[in-house]
Amino acid sequence: MWKWSAYRLAGRRTGINRIRLTVICSACKHLSTVRSSLSKVRNIGIIAHIDAGKTTTTERMLYYAGVSKHIGDVDTGDTITDFLEQERSRGITIQSAAISFPWRDSFTVNLIDTPGHIDFTFEVIRALKVIDACVVILDAVAGVEAQTEKVWGQSQSKPKICFINKMDRMGASFNHTVNDLIGNFMQGTTSKPVLINIPYYEKHPASNDYVFQGVIDVINEKRLTWNPEDPDEITIDDLDGISLKQCNRCKESMIETLTEFDEDLVQHFLEEAEGDYSKVSAQSLNASIRKLTVQNKIVPILCGASFKNIGVQPLLDAVVNYLPSPIEATLPELNDKDIPMKYDPKVGCLVNDNKNFCIAFAFKVITDPIRGKQVYVRIYSGRLNSGNTVYNSTTGEKFKLGKLLVPHAGTSQPVDVLTAGQIGLLTGSTIENNVSTGDTLLSHSLKKDGLKSFDKKKELTLKINPIFIPPPVFGVSIEPRTLSNKKSMENALNTLVTEDPSLSITQNDETGQTVLNGMGELHLEIAKYRLVNDLKADVEFGQLMVSYKETINSETNLETYESDDGYKFSLSVLPNAAHIPNCATYPLGINDNYLVMKNNVKYDKEWRLQVPLESIINSIMASCIVGLQRGGKLANFPLYGCSIKIRGDWSVPLDIETPQEILKITRNLVLTALDDLPTDGYALLEPIMDLDLTIPQSDVGTVLQDLAGARKAQVLSIEDECSPITPAPSSNASFENNERIYIPPDVISTLHTIKDKKKSQDATFNMKKNIKARVPLREITAYTNKLRSLSQGRGEFNIEYFDMEKVTDDRLQSILHDL
Questions:
Q1: For the domain that residue 510 is a member of, what is the CATH number?
Q2: In terms of domains, do 253 and 367 share one?
Q3: Considering the entire predicted model, what is its pTM?
Q4: Is 590 among the annotated ligand-binding positions?
Q5: 332 located within any domain
Q6: 134, 240, 250, 785: which has the highest count of C-beta atoms within 10 A?
Q7: 372 is an annotated ligand-binding site residue
């Protein structure tokens, strides 16, 4: 498809080649006509700290893949993946966007671009649930940042490659960023970095500054430079001088690292290459890198400057060359580990040796102004056909599929079938009340209504474990402007929380107040904007407030209901008991609450009732959620960290037709159990945040005093954070890690070197301290201005949710008084 790809595949040792990248087939046509084999599919997510260049990199990928004819720009607001009005006006990604595109003719890349802001962390969590691998983008100036640490931890089990972006910026340091990666994520682990390419600089004739112009391909020993006037032109040269020396050292280091894990490469090196690093073939290196990346033993590292169009094509090649296909990725986690599951090269996940079994996972719901509700799904096994009957194993309901689509950010294209490994969209009126985020959908790959051929006790009970939803930490009250607006407000709120489950609605039965809860100030600000402008809700908002919760200190009394017509339920509510032996556990919403049901001897062997067991359990779960949402006795806040335990002798009438009566019975039992607890049986919980501070050394004392005193913080660590001065261009200095990993020294501009020398004369200017602490959210809501005052404007901080903890006695009355 591209001459670039031909070069990368062959790895020829030619002289100077100037090539122009020209798309000779339609990407859109590819999406609708070509279904890549599973081995040619890559499901990836792009993750990073905010402002590292995720969307800019994605836009270049789409341009070079032929999806777009012009390169979208975040600053001008014409990007493909950031298509919401607020994303374009703010210049940030707010929600994850999925898009499919071809690369090198035969490969299909399903890409999800995720937000970098901590308030939208749920978008990252749900993207990581369905992707097979990650591209981690780092800012070459800032290095590893707070959200980089967060997303790296979240994606720990996923194979990944790193792209060090913004190499064209003043202060960019490839050497420092790679060392930062090693120090933060690889020190003390078996995972090691492998440099696929390294930066190449050219001296500017007028200023004598070194300008980032391209990359040195370590495997193929070539220099690639991009024409700043033409994004489609790349010049490929042979290496000489210092570039060749650095490339050779990097290649030797690469081989040393790979041979630590790969016996096949050891054999190739000793026998075919005769122990000569220069004779190790590009094909052998690529095969070894791929194998070890899929095994999560190495992290390939590339560099570039996406805004200047440098390094994006090698990055795309690395995606298809090194990251796993769906049949090489980790199997999805199921609720029943006894059901046999393995990968099959034709059908994907092969469950119970049934090749006609289709499994799909719903990970995102959106509302399209024209098509209505749409659901993003990842197909794990088989084929999902338009018009087929689908069984939702999460809810126990069946429905018929409407049209299927392949996503293209703000637009999409119709298809007749979605196959294993694909990410697609469900549409049509039948999904309106039948699918939610986190549901598992099952279908027959060939028959339109073939569910009867599946084993009810095995295949039809299968569920992929749900997506973890972090609890909200901020809330804002919301009221309709008039009574006639109440229904439209409720509908708009329902749409909002359906699309974004990290938002939640709580209602106070005593005051009638409705509260919208979210992950942070920006999260709620965007939600408020959508309510008013997109969903046309005529509402008024109150002040931002901390989302407190309540919990219970001990187990309640056992409450029982038994009727003559066959209903019998006994339950109690207890704190923190999610896992009890010989019990089935079901999560109840986002407040870390669980339904715990003991094994029922009466129904375990065979279920003979007309109403599916799943419908009975879902009704019990719904009533438990309502009961816990009513809140505790301290301030009517929703209950958190509680388990509702139902005894194993429960029963329902044999002729039961609907589970409606169960809702009423179990809800009343929960409320009665909680009412019997005295007020002192409840405790108030508050969100505790992890605080990451970077401040000048001279301000450490005053900041620590403020943290320990006014902020009630627990200081966890205080460490030095020095920005090393990189060697000048003439320096022979280099950094070696573990005696094998060679990282070339940075080549930096003369102007930058002069500035650094001037700064180094003042040691306190360079020296900063990093403070990590835990602090109640209430005590840090207005911290930005305070830190600016304490550090003369030179301090920075990030916060992220840690846990809910009980409010200490000395602060309880003060908090209750302010509510």
A1: 3.30.70.870
A2: no
A3: 0.81
A4: no
A5: no
A6: 134
A7: no
